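Deliverable D4.2, example record:
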Amino acid sequence: MAIESESFLVPRRRGLAVGIGVGLALAALASHLGRLAESPIVSAVPALANFGPGKLGELRAIQLDASGQLPANIDSVGRQALAAAPLAYEPFFAVAAGGFRGQTDVGSARDAALLREALRRNARSREARVFLLRFDVGNNRLAEAIDQIAVLNRLTSAGTTVLMQRVGAAIRTEKQVDEALVALSPHPELFEPFLRGFASVAKPAPLAIRMVARLPRTGLANPLVRELAMKELVNAQAFTEARAIWGTSIAPGLLVHSPDFADRSAPPPFNWELKINDTGAAERDPSGGIELDYYGRNPGPLLTQLMTLAPGAYQTSLAYRSLGGTPGALGLRLACVGMPEPLFEQPLAGKIGVDQVLKVSFTVPAQGCRGQFLSLGGRIQESRDSQQALIRRLDVVAGAAR
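Output generated by the structure prediction step:
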């Protein structure tokens, strides 16, 4: 069926009670639907497809008009085609398509029934599934919409990632969280794009916590899903819950996980996260430790770990060697999660090629600092100097400096 457009999939109302604006995402999917066997080109080259009875061939060759609308006679053509080919699915799709003629139409219950009959006859009809998905979205049928996306994902993965991200982004209430997770449970492959979409729009902390708490084990078994879940909990400052998902224990007597950077298996944020971006690069040195290369143009963190220090006095100890550039362009920083100003920030000074130990005393306040990011990265400086350094060990101990 040659019905292709960038606009025919926009829902009439902000359905699913959350305003899932999937129109653009569905349009992206539409561009990936059948390109040859279901394209109008076959009407000009009959050898490319078997059209069967004339009306069915006419139906298969229908195109949208210049304004992106279905032709007015599609209903009658569909009925005539059904009389000529009673086992075909296209007539049912064609008659139902009349309910989606307008760019903002989502069809009726009758149209949906016709689409289901079309799918009963041809379960692989992507265009019928896309229209049925549009009906589900427009009529607050979240579970059914997710089921359709899951099937489309198996038929053609193109576009389904964007669809699930749009669904996740639109979640607004606890009821919608619960409904979405029940619908997603049989489709663990969709959890990752759903959570990426959920995270793309700021959500209230209780909603994010509920989302992660109710994720099934099949979803959390995926390391990428687990990472996204931990980030949501960290953003919600639910650090205890995030550590539970992290699932790794810190060695007795230590406050920093793997202060010598030896643990390469435990994931961030409670283990070290090494970044490579416009700021610079953090890479493991073959002889041990982390080599930092700050380019000097865009200040920011290159090596980070999330900590959950209790209120009180502490001291951090950093063993490093400046390898090149301008000493002091890199800095050691500790900041409370969600707070713009750090508890401290100290430059990595000292002569190039000489081993250094930087000790900094600090106090975690009693309020507003249940989580802290310990980081090394480029500092803000007018001169935009670069620096390279080898970090041997970074640790934190309780108690004031002696």
